[in-house]
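Example 3.2
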Amino acid sequence: MKKYSKVAVGGTFDELHRGHKTLLSKAFEAGEYVVVGLTSDEFVARMKKPHKTATYPERLRELETFLNNSGYKDRFHVVQLNDSFGLTLIGDGLDALVVSEDTAKIGRIINRKRHEAGLPALKILVVHLVQAENDKPISTTRIRANEIDRNGHMLKSNP
C-alpha cells in the first residue's frame, strides 16, 4: 500500500533524463495514482529558458512512453500546465506534491495559496537532485549544451 492516494508532480521534462526519471519514480513510490503536470509550450516560452525546448507533443510522447514502459500504466494522468500551480489549487483530491530541491519553493507557495483558499496543505516530498559524473546536477540545460548525456556522463571537459 502506498503512503498517499493521489500525488502530483510537474515539470517541463525536456530531454527526459535520469534526474527527471528519479523524480517521477519517487512520485510513484509515494502515491497510488500520480497526476503528472507537463508545461505547455506557452508556459515554457514565459520561462525564457536558455535553450531550445522540444514541443509539448514531443515531450508528452516521450514522457508517456517512459511511464508506460516503467510499469506505471493506468496509475497516472498527464495534465497540461499553463502556470506553476496546475490542479494543486482546485479541490482537495491531492494528498502530496513531489518536487525537486530546485522547485521546493513552489511547493511552499502552493500550500500558502491552498491555505488562503481554505484547502488542506499538501505533504511536500522533496527529491534530491541527481548528480552527473562531475558532481554537478543533471539538467536539460547541460544536456542541450552537449556537456553531459541524459544519464549524466560527461561529453566534453569543463574548463
